[in-house]
TrEMBL record:
Enzyme Commission number(s) from the entry: 4.2.1.46
NCBIfam families: dTDP_gluc_dehyt
Entry protein name: dTDP-glucose 4,6-dehydratase
Domain NAD(P)-binding: residue ranges: 7-310
Pfam families in the record: GDP_Man_Dehyd (PF16363)
Swiss-Prot/TrEMBL cofactor(s): NAD(+)
Gene: rfbB
InterPro entries recorded: dTDP_Gluc_deHydtase (IPR005888), NAD(P)-bd_dom (IPR016040), NAD(P)-bd_dom_sf (IPR036291)
CDD domains named among the record's database cross-references: dTDP_GD_SDR_e
Key words of the record: Lyase, NAD
Superkingdom of the organism of origin: Bacteria
Length: 332
């Protein structure tokens, strides 16, 4: 009997990388193939603990390279595709939107064509709450799966576009799929250009921490390990064609997050430096994950315990993020 084969795209990144480890360790009877181009945010050192396991392999490739992707699908005959690979940094999308369109839209189309051509059990497309646009500060209002898509940055527009392509391939061709839309993730191996790891690394080095605008923009924070468990459930139990929101019930302002990190590390709030606000900076994201909770998932981390665990991980793993900041990881 052949083993179940799972393709994880973007498995050298933050969320995809955590998911690869989760799957390799939880399902030793699955073959997990990590596909990543290894752009600036891709780092394989996070997989040292699993790289020699018999159910793990790595493939370096560009998801927008049609010939290579088709050849890979023909050879491996995947059962599941879990699609994380994406350009994801909003500031970079403002500087150069074209890169985001190529990877996030065209790359997704190539994967969908390959999945349709060679047949799969399910295509799980990992998206973001940013496709919904922004909410005001009314704490009673949340994004649901029926909220209209109103993206406000080139990044979120490219993700919304890929979401619609995945939906269209289901409706037009009958491709079995799910879309998940998550709130802001945090946890181990988060690339240090993002708010939480950036703040931790700067505070540990007694450097100024930039905070956009007045710092009152609100995000719902989801621990990456909770996110991995959610995707696992959707992959195996999600109703084909459905969208599932994944949220952590942990809304905080950006300023609150920064202050929590500063206080935990015993440093001064004088390190905070308010800077010009980001273009098109959404005020608030907040997810209603009731649909996924009815499927059987609940987050296990409240923010207080999750952020404490995350800060301690960065304290204990300074070598990892220092290699990232110095650029040394690119030499491997």
């Amino acid at each position: 009997m052949s083993k179940t084969k799972v393709l994880v795209t973007g498995g050298a990144g933050f969320i995809g990388g955590n998911f690869v480890q989760y799957m390799v360790n939880k399902y030793p009877h699955y073959d997990v193939i990590n596909l990543d181009l290894l752009t600036y945010a891709g780092d394989l050192s996070k997989h040292r603990s699993i790289k020699d396991k018999v159910n793990y392999q790595f493939e370096q490739a560009d998801i927008a390279d049609r010939k290579t992707i088709m050849t890979l699908f023909e050879r491996e005959r995947f059962d599941f595709v879990i699609h994380f690979a994406a350009e994801s940094h909003v500031d970079r999308s403002i500087t150069d939107p074209s890169v985001f369109v190529r990877t996030n839209v065209m790359g997704t189309q190539v994967l969908l064509d390959a999945a349709r051509t060679f047949g799969i059990t399910k295509f799980v497309h990992v998206s973001t709450d940013e496709v919904y646009g922004e909410l005001d500060f009314d704490p009673a209002v949340f994004f649901t799966e029926n909220t209209p898509l109103q993206p406000n940055s080139p990044y979120s527009a490219s993700k919304a576009s890929s979401d619609l392509l995945v939906r269209a391939y289901h409706e037009t061709y009958g491709l079995p799929m799910n879309i998940t839309r998550c709130s802001n993730n945090y946890g181990p191996f988060h690339f240090p250009e993002k708010l939480i790891p950036l703040t931790i690394s700067r505070v540990m080095n007694d450097q100024k921490v930039p905070v956009y605008g007045d710092g009152k923009n609100i995000r719902d924070w989801l621990h990456v390990w909770d996110h991995c468990a959610a995707i696992d459930l959707v992959m195996h139990e999600g109703v084909s064609g459905e969208v599932y929101n994944v949220g952590g019930h942990n809304e905080r302002t950006n300023l609150e997050v920064v202050k929590t990190i500063i206080h935990t590390l015993g440093k001064s709030e004088d390190l905070i430096e308010f800077v010009a606000d980001r273009l098109g900076h959404d005020k608030r994201y907040a997810i209603d994950p009731s649909k996924l909770e009815h499927l059987g998932w609940k987050p296990t981390f409240i923010f207080e315990t999750g952020i404490a665990q995350t800060i301690q991980w960065y304290v204990d793993n300074t070598e990892w993020w220092e290699r990232i900041l110095s650029g040394e990881y690119r030499e491997v």
